[in-house]
Amino acid sequence: MKGCMVATWKMALEGIQEGMQILNGNGNLHRAIVEAVKRVEDNENFVSVGYGGLPNREGYVELDAAFMDGDTLGAGGVMAVQGIKNPIELACSLSRCSRNCFLAGKGAEEYALSQGVEMQNLLTPNAMRRYESSLKSNLKGDMDAYDGHDTVCVIGRNQSGSIACGVSTSGLFLKHPGRVGDSPIIGSGFYANSIIGSAAATGVGEDIMKGCLAYSIVASMGSGLSVQDACEHALNYHI
Ligand code: ASP
After folding, report:
1. 203 lines ligand 1 (CB under 6 A)
2. What per-residue confidence (pLDDT) applies to 1?
3. For position 143, what pLDDT does the model report?
4. Which of 47, 149, 168, 207 is the pocket-test mutation for ligand 1 (most atoms within 8 Å of CB)?
5. Is any ligand 1 atom within 6 A of the Cβ of residue 156?
6. Share of the chain above pLDDT 70, in %
7. Beta partners for 10?
């Protein structure tokens, strides 16, 4: 069996190229996914993830990320965290824990510090400029929930058939502080099961969560539907 990776959006291209090199080298699936996501988190030109991400309505970049191991069904995530450039690293390490796997806000930031993560300001000058000009259109009521946000979702499978996935996002632009979308919610923004497959989502989290879409797609694949049919079935039912 060959290793493979798929991801959302063009921003993930370089990341999955690097991830594939890891997969084809030592076959470390988790590392391949984490490095692929980190490439996007680190790049300030990708404005909806990680460093330089979309600020919340108070001007703070607040991030969500999650990781799931399809062999063990171990999942972990951090939500509404500030000052952490690579939340995917934390999500991956939390997915190996048996308790306290999903951490929010201050508690997640404390966990990051305990892991030796250095806090940093994620609001780049460009993000600040975008924030200031968008605040004005938002006040005029010109923005809607679909304006300018995306999640990087990376799904991979190694040569032994293990499947895992990782997601990372700054969520909705000008969101309420503390708002959490689908991305770090297991079964909504992501799900992986090595026997069946994996799914991950991007779009307005409040809508995706109503259908627990990632789990619903994987469950449909488990009942025998093809990937395409499982997605259509879950989405049509949801709509
Ligand atoms: N699903 C993300 C959220 O609602 C945003 C996105 O994927 O565009 O936070």
Report:
1. yes
2. 86
3. 62
4. 149
5. no
6. 96
7. none
Identify whether the C-beta of residue 16 lies closer than 8 Å to the C-beta of residue 154: yes
* Nearest atom within ligand 1 for CA of residue 202: 7
Residues 200-214, mean pLDDT to the nearest whole number: 96
Q: How many whole angstroms from 151 Cα to the centroid of ligand 1?
A: 6
- pLDDT mean over 7-29: 95
Task: Tell me the pTM.
Answer: 0.95
191's CB contacts (< 8 A; 6+ apart) are 68, 165, 198, 199, 200, 214, 215, 217, 218
Rounded to the nearest angstrom, the distance between the alpha carbon of 127 and the centre of ligand 1 is 17
Q: Does the Cβ of 89 fall within 6 Å of ligand 1?
A: no
| Alpha carbons 143 and 147: distance in angstroms, whole number | 6
Q: Does the pLDDT at position 147 exceed 70?
A: no
Distance (Å, whole) CA 31 – CA 116? 18
Query: Per-residue confidence at 146, pLDDT binned at 50, 70, 90?
Result: low
Beta strands in 22-97 (DSSP E): 62-69, 75-82
Helix 105-114 and helix 87-94, axial crossing angle in degrees, nearest 10: 90
Catalytic residue at 72? no
Rounded CA-CA distance 159/209 in Å is 32
